[in-house]
Structures are given as C-alpha cells and as structure tokens.
Design brief:
Blueprint (H helix, E strand, L loop, with lengths): L2 E3 L2 H4 L2 E2 L21 E3 H16 L3 E6 L4 H10 L20 E7 L28 H16 L3 E3 L2 E6 L3 H4 L18
Parallel strand pairs: 2-4
Antiparallel strand pairs: 1-3, 4-5, 5-7, 6-7
Helix pairs in contact: 2-4
Length: 188
Amino acid sequence: MALVEITPQEYDVEIDIVYATDRNFTGAPIYLRPACYLHQDAAACLKKASLMARRQGVKLRLLDAFRPQEAQRALWNHTPNADFVANPDIGSPHGRGVAIDLTLLDQNGKELDMGTGFDEMDPKSYHGAEGISKTAESNRLLLLGIMVSAGFEFYHVEWWHYQLPNARTRYPLFSDSSLKYPMMRAAG
C-alpha cells in the first residue's frame, strides 16, 4: 500500500482533521474517523517541510490529507464549485494521497494569521490576493516557501493547499476501502 499514516510524533506536526468535525464548509462531519494518510512520496516531502518549518520557528498544522473518493463525492454534492472542490469524476490530488491542506502555528501553538480561514471560498484565499494584511501575506509566503522547497506545488486559489507535481498523471485514486481502518465507515 502506497499510503502511510501520518502521526504527530513521527512527523513533528499537529493534526486537526477538519472534515471529521463540523468545522468545515458543509457544517457536518464527512469522515467518521479523523485519520491522516499520505502517499509515501508526499510523506517524505512532509518530513522535509516539517524540518524547515521548525528551523523558521513555526510548526505545521495538518487540516486534511488523503481524502477518500467517497468523501470527495460528498463534498462535491454539497458544493459543486470546481474552483474549490474537485469533481469526483475527475478525481482530486487528495484522493491520490498527494495533497495536503495545512496552516502554520507559532511557538505557542497559535495559528498564524493567513488573512482568511481554511476552506474560505473567496478571492482573498488566492495566493497573491490583495486586501489581506501584510502579516497575513508574510505568513502565506513563509508557508509557500516551506512547502515548495520541500517538493510540493501550490494551488493558486487556496493558500492552504499543496500537492505533489503531476498528481493526476502520476498517482492512482484511492477509496476508503484502500485503508486498513476506514475513515468513512465503521471498521469491522
């Protein structure tokens, strides 16, 4: 299996899987279990990013990573906006385990100001957006530098989304049944 579980201890990150809560744009949990998986290639890049973040005095907070195809369908059915939600018929880099949504924490564990919230479907969420504070822009640029230096590429309309290059052509899609312990349904 190409997906590996990401743990706070091994990767020196904080994990807050928002889609396992009601703190996402649907207002309801999408995952039954708040698990964090990435393709082994993306996991290796995450380790690099975590080390770089630490050298800069910040820490990564992971908000979403691998997203089963079943979850992608639920998100699309709720909000079929192709700028912010990938059509499940095409597949998402998240569904391949090579995309990650994240933010930065300061040394006290407080989220840095990024100008908008995670999953805020607004032009102010775009990289290079005008109308955000200088502090938020600096924080976004710090995250961008860390993630790109670690081997990820950015998605231009979401400051929080990073993925491996050529994700749709290099990596297969995975479903919930690909996991030993499912995220979308009760194990058993």
